[in-house]
Q: What sequence folds into this?
């Protein structure tokens, strides 16, 4: 069955792959991109592939963009836009920390609230949030991003129960490490401010991200969740990451200071 789906963060990574993939499967896709040049580029890509995608400017931090998006009537919100900033908790500037929460938590929630209200009145709808395995266990030197995704997990858990009686479904997808460039640039981000002050702890141990997975695995799982009649509440990929999360959540009960 064809659905109308809004994909945020559609200019790159998972959002781009999901938007193009859903359009190829016959869905009506509205793809939100942060800046105008991305809008134009994605339109050209879709046209070259013979895909009918409505591409809009949707910077989730921009109240004008959010209001424009909320004028649409959709069946599914894929709440995917996000940013990653790295750095040890004792050193990361609070302005940087706040920026992660502004995008990953507050803007995402405000977008979800608007569409959830429409869906409740209609008695049907689905909100799919891109969370992360980082929202389910510890991630040293990436605590800001992990904290934002822990917040997303709390929001989704509450929304799932609150909206279920109204026919609105809330589920999460939790990627591990995939080769989209998101992790690479996110871990590099702390170098922008590291040299701008005295530091009392060491820079995170630089390592190559050479064990990341093919993003098509996660994109396929996201599309499956969006299309499914009854998707699971949580979808973690790859399978090894799911086992790692479950083991750590078990081990935390025996953790010492």
A:
């Amino acid at each position: 069955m064809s659905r109308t789906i809004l994909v945020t963060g559609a200019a790159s990574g998972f959002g781009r792959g999901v938007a193009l993939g859903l359009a190829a499967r016959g869905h009506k896709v509205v793809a939100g991109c942060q800046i105008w040049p991305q809008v134009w580029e994605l339109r050209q890509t879709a046209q070259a592939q013979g895909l009918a995608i409505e591409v809009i400017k949707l910077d989730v931090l921009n109240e004008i963009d959010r209001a424009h998006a909320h004028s649409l009537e959709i069946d599914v919100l894929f709440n995917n836009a996000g940013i990653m900033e790295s750095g040890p908790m004792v050193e990361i500037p609070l302005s940087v920390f706040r920026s992660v929460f502004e995008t990953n938590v507050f803007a995402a929630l405000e977008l979800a609230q608007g569409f959830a209200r429409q869906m409740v009145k209609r008695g049907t709808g689905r909100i799919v949030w891109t969370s992360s395995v980082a929202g389910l266990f510890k991630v040293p030197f990436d605590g800001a991003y992990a904290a934002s995704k822990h917040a997303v997990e709390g929001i989704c858990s509450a929304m799932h129960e609150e909206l279920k009686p109204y026919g609105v479904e809330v589920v999460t997808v939790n990627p591990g490490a995939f080769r989209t460039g998101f992790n690479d640039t996110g871990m590099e981000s702390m170098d922008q401010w590291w040299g701008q002050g005295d530091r009392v702890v060491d820079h995170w141990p630089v390592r190559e991200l050479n064990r990341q997975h093919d993003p098509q695995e996660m994109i396929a799982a996201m599309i499956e969740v969006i299309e499914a009649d009854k998707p699971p509440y949580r979808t973690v990929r790859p399978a090894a990451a799911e086992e790692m999360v479950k083991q750590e959540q078990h081990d935390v009960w025996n953790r010492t200071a």
Observations:
- Residues 119 and 125 are 5 Å apart (CA to CA).
- The chain has a mean pLDDT of 96.
- The longest strand covers residues 168-175.
- The beta strands are 4-7, 28-33, 53-57, 76-79, 125-130, 168-175, 234-237.
